[in-house]
Amino acid sequence: MKYQELLKQHRLKATPQRMAIIELMYNAGHITIEELYQSIVKKFASISLATLYKNIHSMMDVSLIREVKVPGYKTKYEIEKSEHAHVMCTSCGELKDISLNPSSLLENRQFDLAGYKADDVAIVISGICPNCQKK
Amino acid sequence: MKYQELLKQHRLKATPQRMAIIELMYNAGHITIEELYQSIVKKFASISLATLYKNIHSMMDVSLIREVKVPGYKTKYEIEKSEHAHVMCTSCGELKDISLNPSSLLENRQFDLAGYKADDVAIVISGICPNCQKK
DNA sequence: GCAAATCTTAAAATTACTTTCAAAACTTTA
DNA sequence: TAAAGTTTTGAAAGTAATTTTAAGATTTGC
Fold first, then answer.
1. Which residues of B touch A (CB under 8 A)?
2. Inter-residue contact A67 to B71 (CB < 8 Å)
């Protein structure tokens, strides 16, 4: 199981609960705490929401996962991967990655960042997905 | 008071509570519900959080104000103004507008938006503000 | 295998947000 | 300008989201 490795690299203990979280998150792409809980409870009947929240935070602290806050919706979480942006459908709520590299977008322009030293760029584009456009 | 006009233009009644909300939001730039409540209660001792939430939502519905969700922090609200992006200091929490126009940024490049029809682009850059850099 | 460090869980607590409902404040309408 | 209708306010109760606590269980490095 590669997830075990992933956790160890980040100096976190590889508990079964954590591996399940990562697996679910990996398969879902983006997932809310609630969805995560619904799925994981099938495997670990006694898992507690506190465990989910705590693990989500430990993994965020070591940049293994990332929080995606979208206007008007619940926060979702994803495995950290190469930089990308998000499109969110305001009709059905689908969240999708797009391969727009946020920091390269800024690089070739000299924006006035008001003196800030930028570490991270989060881009969420809201719109209507192809499916909902048809309706 | 111009705030009265602003509300009427959006077909909302210009109640004193709403005008106070707008005024505070305008002066603060970006404000959380909690901060808003702390300030407004000084003027309207009996105002309820429910009123704040309700008014925030009415004003969002008519695009008078806008929700800004920032990774790791509480949701803030701002008066809708011309398009812009945000920088947020991960050290002190300060949120600042920068004059980067999100949609023009996308216009002159043909991004693959996975078939989405884009309505809105939210950009939040996280980093360290000039003040915190000194420390 | 053992000890140290870390993790899991239930339960309670806290914080965030929403709904309900009656009274008050406004707007119509005639 | 009074009655009728509509909207808003705010208290209270309700739901949802997140954190804390403390005790027992697991993982890891040696």
1. 67, 69-72, 87, 89-90, 96, 98-100, 102, 105-106, 111-130, 133
2. yes
Distance from CA of B49 to the nearest CA of A (A): 19
pLDDT digit string, tens, across residues A8-45: 999 999 999 999 999 999 999 999 999 999 999 999 99
Task: For residue B23, give the CATH number of its domain.
Answer: 1.10.10.10
Is residue A104 packed enough to be buried (19+ CB in 10 Å), middle (13-18) or exposed (0-12)? Answer: exposed
Say whether both B88 and B122 belong to one domain. yes
pTM across the whole model: 0.85
Among residues A124, A27, A99, the alpha carbon closest in space to that of B71 is found at A124
Whole-number Å distance between alpha carbons of A74 and A95: 11
Range of the domain at B13: 2-77
